[in-house]
Amino acid sequence: MSDSGRDLTNDHGHDRDHDRDQDHRHGEGECARERLRLALRGARRTLSRPAFDATLGELLSGLAADAGEVYDLGEPADLYGDGVVADLERRVAALLGAEDAAFFPTGTMAQQVALRCWAGRTGNATVALHPLAHPEQHERGAFQALSGLRTVHPTSEPRHPTADEVRDFDEPFGALMLELPLREAGFALPSWEELIEVVEAARERDAVVHFDGARLWECATHFGRPLDEIAQLADSVYVSFYKSLGGIGGAAVVGPASFVAEARAWRHRYGGQVFQQFPTALSALLGLSRELPRLPSYVEHARVVADALRAGFEEAGTPWFKVHPETPHTHQFQVWLPHDADALVTAAAEQAEETGNALFRRWFAQGAPGVAMTEVTVTGPGLEWTADDVRAAVKDFVRRL
């Protein structure tokens, strides 16, 4: 979705002056984003500090210092998925109330394998999912290119499909995939009752249900249910170890034991049977130990931050803005402003450099010319911000536009 991901190849019909202007503005944008990256690293206060802000040395020293809290470092290193990797699999299966779990190096591979396994078992290679879901937006058509899967969309609205849309869809599908939360729609979730109804509608059609739960860990507050109760609605679930938990990477697929055994076979075929993965597995265990218990507090404070952002924009006299969802479903949400993305990135960098407060991170051109969106994430560092702090920072940020 980022500007840098767009195709910048010149069409034959473009004149050279226009091309040079486009290249110049693209270069300015890259400089602004690099400036913001450095400003975020140096900021005293920010709403979150993701691992990718850290240096290699910081990440390595942190893992070495803390990993002994979650695993006996006197044990041998893992080989092809045993040891600490197998322990992580058992821990995840227990947390999600599943018979078994398989560790994968990436979520893209994990979901490729899960949906491929279900296609073989159901005899139907069609997957119903949202057009904003991760496989449709960020995986280069991998479902079709690698696994022979075909995708259909019960709805194109920026929300989860309803039970009626699933029940009345005009062609058969073997699996319904639900991304919880749906990131591109503002980290949106259905209500608990709606989720149950959608799952039941899929089952009425003899389809299996798979949850893209990359961020499932942060959904319990919205649903008012424990993680295992949420996960057990589905036939299989994928979870990430870095998107909510702050790990180095990695993912897992959970489900029935026979299904997970088949997934392990396909993991090997897809090149996911990695020789050693102990740094990733240890960081995942640390995330489960440290971040998972804190996620409910992040979700609750994200709602405080969202309210304060709205109040700050109103007090600053901003003519149009949008905080979406109005009440965040998770600890992440969107903010939209009617400004050029590069101008917003520059303002964010200036604010972080001059005040030490980093309120916003990257901004992305969205929807229409002159409109941009950013994703706000509230984690441990964000708990230090009061509503008054956020309102004051918003007004300072608007002043720089």
Automatic annotation (TrEMBL):
Residues 1-29 are annotated as: Disordered. It holds the Pfam family Beta_elim_lyase. It comes from the Bacteria. Gene3D superfamilies: Aspartate Aminotransferase, domain 1, Type I PLP-dependent aspartate aminotransferase-like (Major domain). Its cofactor is pyridoxal 5'-phosphate. One of its GO terms (molecular function) is lyase activity. Residues 81-310 form the Aromatic amino acid beta-eliminating lyase/threonine aldolase domain. The keyword Repeat does not apply. Keywords: Lyase, Pyridoxal phosphate. The keyword Lyase applies. Belongs to the threonine aldolase family. This is Beta-eliminating lyase-related protein. It comes from Streptomyces cavernicola.
